[in-house]
């Protein structure tokens, strides 16, 4: 069985500040891990993925995430927040990359001017 | 990545009626999935739509309530039957790319049941 926990349903940062969104997973098999972003009234867009290659994964829009097996974590970071980053972010896990996804509860990111 | 479209984009329906949501992909894909996103919630998988066979439903979802068709490798439909206000959600289809080990999502169908 697989599960994902996102710590913090709402994160607020100032423009230009570091963004850190937390994700911990549970998986009985080596996981595939994903971060998706959902802008208001839109579908989900893939930000980045971990598929057992490099543990530090770079994605779109300046985001990156680090897979830490010992901590069962896959936290999402961005060095400098931009107003356009305001959205809902979902962490997800699957047993195989293209198979069904189990999502975390989501984290709403607000950027303060 | 695949380009996915859904119809309708939104609808307001009366309780007790049914709505069929269409999902069209611009390329042939083996795996298609249907998810539900209830207001303010995360996404939950309803079922995996298999071409040429019955859909595989997740716990808590049944075929009588959410019948699914998958007539070919680029198209699928999800029907929400005998709707109640609790069915008000965003319904999203997605497709899996085995080559890239990732999934792509459609824009979603926002359903409101009154």
Structure description:
The complex is a heterodimer of chains A (113) and B (114). Chain A has 113 residues and is mainly β. Chain A has strands at residues 3-7, 10-14, 19-26, 32-38, 44-50, 56-58, 64-68, 73-78, 87-94, 102-103, 107-112. In chain A, the strands form two sheets. In chain A, strands 2, 4, 5, 9, 10 and 11 form a six-stranded mixed beta sheet that branches. Chain A has a five-stranded antiparallel beta sheet with strand order 1-3-8-7-6, with no helix packed on it. Chain B is mainly beta. Chain A binds chain B through residues 32, 34, 36, 41-46, 49, 51, 90, 94, 96-106, and chain B through 1, 4, 31, 33, 41-45, 48, 58, 92, 94, 96-98, 100-108, 110.
Question: Characteristics of this structure?
Answer:
heterodimer; A: 113 residues; mainly beta; 6-stranded mixed beta sheet; 5-stranded antiparallel beta sheet; 55% strand; B: 114 residues; 7-stranded mixed beta sheet; 4-stranded antiparallel beta sheet; 54% strand; globular
């Amino acid at each position: 069985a697989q599960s994902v926990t996102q710590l913090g349903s709402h994160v607020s940062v100032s423009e230009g500040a570091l963004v850190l969104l937390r994700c911990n997973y549970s998986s009985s098999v080596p996981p595939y891990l994903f971060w998706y972003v959902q802008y208001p009234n839109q579908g989900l867009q893939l930000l980045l993925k971990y598929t057992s290659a490099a543990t530090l994964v770079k994605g779109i829009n300046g985001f990156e995430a680090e897979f830490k097996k010992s901590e069962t974590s896959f936290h999402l970071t961005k060095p400098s927040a931009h107003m356009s980053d305001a959205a809902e972010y979902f962490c997800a896990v699957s047993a195989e990359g293209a198979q069904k996804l189990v999502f975390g509860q989501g984290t709403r990111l607000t950027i303060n001017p | 990545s695949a380009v996915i479209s859904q119809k309708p984009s939104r609808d307001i329906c009366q309780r007790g009626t049914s709505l069929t949501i269409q999902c069209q992909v611009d390329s042939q894909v083996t795996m298609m999935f249907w998810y539900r996103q209830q207001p303010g919630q995360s996404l939950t998988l309803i079922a995996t739509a298999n071409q040429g066979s019955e859909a595989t439903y997740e716990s808590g979802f049944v075929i009588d309530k959410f019948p699914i068709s998958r007539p070919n490798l680029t198209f699928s439909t999800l029907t929400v039957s005998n709707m109640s206000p609790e069915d008000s959600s965003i319904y999203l289809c997605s497709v899996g790319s085995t080559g890239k080990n990732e999934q792509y999502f459609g824009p979603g169908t926002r359903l409101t049941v009154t």
